[in-house]
Amino acid sequence: MSAELNTVPKGIAGPSNFLDERLGGASFLKRNMRKIFPDHWSFLLGEIALYSFIILLLTGTFLTFWFKPSMAEVVYDGSYAPLRGVMMSQAYASSLEISFDVRGGLLMRQMHHWAALLFVAGMMVHALRVFFTGAYRKPRELNWIIGVLLLTLALAEGLTGYSLPDDLLSGAGLRITEGVAISLPLVGTYITFFLFGGEYPGEDVVSRFYALHILLIPGIILALVTAHMVLMWVQKHTQMPGKARSNKNVVGAPFYPAFMAKAGAYFLFTLAVVSGLATFTQINPIWLFGPYTPADVSAGSQPDFYMGFLEGALRLMPAWEINLFGASHAGTLPLSVIIPALVPMGIIMTGLALYPFIERWVTGDHREHHVADRPRNNPHRTSIGMSAIAFYGVLWLLGANDEISAFFHISLNWTTYAGRVLVFAAPALAYMITYRICLGLQRSDAAVTGHGVESGVIKRLPHGEYIEVHTPPAEDIQAHVKGKEPVAMLPVAEDTEGIPPKGMRGPLGKLRARMSKAYGGEKIPLESEHGHGHDEEEPAAIGSGGGEDRGSLRH
C-alpha cells in the first residue's frame, strides 16, 4: 500500500486530535470518516429522496411564516384582482398572499410542491432498485421495513399538504378523502369526526391537517430517516457484483473526501433541478381554481401522481355494496369505496413489507448478502416486481379515464371496461414477458462468458467457411457477469426410503417445496453455452461450410 493511502488527510487528523484530546473520539471519527462507500449510479436514487426531503424542510419552514391554517371566512382584498371581494377561508387567502405579495413566495410554494413530487418519486424508484437487486435481504430486513413505512408516511404527508390551500382542486380531493374515511366499517365515522371536527367540511380540517403536516408526520419521517441512515451506516452499503467484490469487503471510495464531495455536488444539482422546475414550470396555480365550496367541483380534476392509483381504483370499481340490515344505512358496506381504498394499497405495501420474509421462507436462505443481484439473475423476483408496477400503472393511468376518453374520443364506459380487464391481465402479461426477457438476458451472459464478444473480424478458413473471430470480454465485464449466484432453494431431496425431510411432509411443507423448486435454482447456468474447446481467438461460424459448428468456445 502506498504512503499516500496510509497518510490520514489533515481534514481528518486535525478534528480527530481536537476531539480525542477532549472527548476521546479520535478513533471513532477516523474510522467513520474513512468509511468506504461503493460507487454505482443506482445508489444515488435514494439520495434524490433525501435531498428532496431537506428542500421540503427548508421551503416548508419559509411557508409557515405566512400561511394561516384557519377556515374562518374573510373577504379577499389582496393583489389578485379577479378574486377581490370574494369570500374565502383565511387558509386560501394566505396562500394567495404568499403567491402574489410575499417576495419569493410563489417560488417557495412551487419549489415545495416540486420537491414533494420528487421526494415521493425518489422513494419509489429507490425502493424498486432495492427490490430488484435483492438489497433487502439479511441483514437489511429491518431497514427495508423502515423504507416501506417512510413511503407510506410520504403519501400521507403529501395528502395533508395538498389539502392545506383550501382551493377548489384540493377541496375536491379532500371530499374524496372524507368519502373514503367514512366508508370504513366501524371506525369510519370516528375517523371522519376526528379529522373534520364534525360534519363535513367542518371548521377544523385545515388546522388539524396543518398540525399533522408540519409536526407529527415530518417528525416521524425525520426519525425514520435517521434510523434508516444509521442502520445503513452500521450494516455497510450493498455493492454490485464485480472484480474483487464479495460479501466480506466493500470496494469504493472513502466517505471523506470523495463521497462527501460527490454528495454535496449532487445535493446542489438536485436543488438546481427543483429550483429550475419551480421557476419555469407552473404547478398548482390555486388562483385559477378559486376557493373551495362543497357545492362546486372543477371538471378534469386530477390529484398529484402519487395518489393517482387511488383515483383510478375508485373509478374502475363497480358500484357494489352490501346491505346487512335491509335498506338501513347503518348496515351498508360500500364495497365500491372500501375495496379501492384498502385493497390496492394493502396489496402493494403489505407485499413489500412481507416479501423479504416470504422469500426467505420459500428459499430457506439465511445467509447474509452484501453483494446485490442483477435483476435478470432472479427472474421470478423481477417478474413479480414488474407485475406490481403494471398493476399500479393501470390504476394510475385510469385515474385519468375521463381525460383519455375526451382526448382520444373513446367512450368513457369502454375505457372503464378496458381498465377492469387490464388491472388483472396487465400484471399477468408483465410477469410472463419479464420472465422470458430475464432468461434471454441470462443466455446472453452465458454466450459472453462461453464464446466471448464479437470482434468484427471476419476470417476465411482453408475449406472456405467464413467465421467471425470472438475475443474474451473485458476483465471487469467478465467479473460482473460471473458474480451471478444461483437462487437459493430448499434441500427437498428424499432419503433412501423415499421420505421427505422433516418440515416438508405436510400440505404446507409440500407447497413450500414446490414453490422453492420453482422460485430457486439456476435457470440458465453460465456454463450452458460453453462448447468444445479452442484458443482465445477461436472464431464463431457465421457461414455454412459444412460439418460441425466451429463457433463455440471452451474455457
Automatic annotation (TrEMBL):
SUPFAM superfamilies: Transmembrane di-heme cytochromes. It comes from Nonomuraea purpurea. Pfam families: Cytochrom_B_N_2. Residues 519-555 are annotated as: Disordered. Its cofactor is heme. Residues 15-241 form the Cytochrome b/b6 N-terminal region profile domain. The keyword Repeat does not apply. It catalyses: a quinol + 2 Fe(III)-[cytochrome c](out) = a quinone + 2 Fe(II)-[cytochrome c](out) + 2 H(+)(out). Keywords: Membrane, Transmembrane, Transmembrane helix. The keyword Cell wall biogenesis/degradation does not apply. This is Cytochrome bc1 complex cytochrome b subunit. It comes from the Bacteria. The chain crosses the membrane at residues 48-67, 113-132, 144-164, 176-197, 209-234, 255-280, 337-358, 417-435. The lineage of its organism: Bacteria, Bacillati, Actinomycetota, Actinomycetes, Streptosporangiales. Residues 524-535 have a biased composition (Basic and acidic residues). Gene3D superfamilies: Cytochrome Bc1 Complex, Chain C (1.20.810.10). Its EC number is 7.1.1.8.
